[in-house]
């Protein structure tokens, strides 16, 4: 009888594999994919081939199937973050505990989403984004972590919706704020929309720098027929050090409908496409 052909000079341990991933044939790869549904115990079993030589050979187990795909996991983390911040009136009603919960939920999403590279995905910034949360609004001022008018039921300024309008072709970056200004009785409140126009540039892979240009105010409601007017800009030599007219922030997560940023003063913001 001819000498049997040994499949392996020595028995292989359960952790051994027949070949490196780079040398697997497409047929073998397809075979392993079809076995993903098998149970864990079956995956770890050994198939002993002893027809001729009695040499034990390990059948390499296929990789375990994940419980859920990454996209599904990311979707669940997005929903968790939105649920945490949804009842906080964009951060104006946030307590210290709320701030910590929002920050933790954002970090989970950022970690799973991975690094953002806007140098290849700049088009993801394009569009009109609605602000649903800012950690800086918990300071109860419209300026967030920067100086700004205070808000409250007894004060004449009521914050409405806040948007960011980004055009990657013209590098326009507009912060759009809807406000309601109180008026003496018997006059109704005045509704206005303030557009803070900026230009932006990309710094590195995920950091954005914005430079302020002008503020335009347009009345709405009963006074919508009035033309917009521009608020004069404070000269640079009179501008306080805390208000330089420019700022930077990092985009820590972005997809087709959700964007998370962290500002140069530690401000966490969450946007959804509008």
TrEMBL record:
It comes from the Eukaryota. Its main location: plastid. Residues 1-26 have a biased composition (Low complexity). It is found in: Plastid. Keywords: Plastid, Transit peptide. Residues 1-43 are annotated as: Disordered. Signal peptide: none annotated. Residues 76-271 form the Plastid lipid-associated protein/fibrillin conserved domain. The keyword Transit peptide applies. The keyword Cell wall biogenesis/degradation does not apply. Pfam families: PAP_fibrillin (PF04755). GO terms for cellular component: plastid. Residues 30-43 have a biased composition (Basic residues). This is Plastid-lipid-associated protein like.
């Amino acid at each position: 009888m001819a000498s049997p052909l040994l499949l392996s000079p020595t028995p292989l341990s359960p952790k051994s594999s027949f070949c490196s991933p780079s040398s697997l044939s497409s047929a073998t790869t397809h075979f392993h994919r079809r076995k993903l549904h098998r149970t864990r115990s079956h995956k770890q079993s050994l198939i002993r081939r002893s027809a001729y030589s009695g040499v034990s050979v390990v059948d390499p187990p296929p990789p375990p199937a994940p419980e859920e795909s990454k996209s599904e996991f990311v979707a669940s983390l997005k929903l968790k973050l939105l649920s945490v911040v949804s009842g906080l009136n964009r951060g104006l009603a946030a307590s210290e505990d709320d701030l910590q919960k929002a920050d933790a939920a954002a970090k989970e999403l950022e970690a799973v989403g991975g690094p953002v590279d806007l140098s290849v995905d700049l088009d993801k910034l394009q569009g009109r984004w609605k602000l649903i949360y800012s950690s800086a609004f918990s300071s109860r001022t419209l300026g967030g972590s920067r100086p700004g008018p205070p808000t409250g039921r007894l004060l004449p300024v009521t914050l409405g919706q806040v948007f960011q309008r980004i055009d990657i072709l013209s590098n326009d970056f507009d912060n759009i704020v809807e406000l309601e200004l109180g008026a003496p009785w018997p006059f109704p409140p005045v509704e206005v929309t303030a557009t803070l126009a900026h230009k932006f540039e990309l710094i590195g892979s995920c950091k954005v720098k914005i430079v302020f240009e002008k503020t335009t105010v347009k009345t709405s409601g009963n006074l919508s027929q009035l033309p917009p007017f521009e608020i004069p800009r404070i000269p640079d030599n009179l501008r306080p050090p805390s208000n330089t007219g420019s700022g930077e922030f990092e985009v820590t997560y972005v997809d087709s409908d959700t964007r998370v940023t962290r500002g140069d003063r530690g401000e966490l913001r969450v946007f959804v496409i509008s």
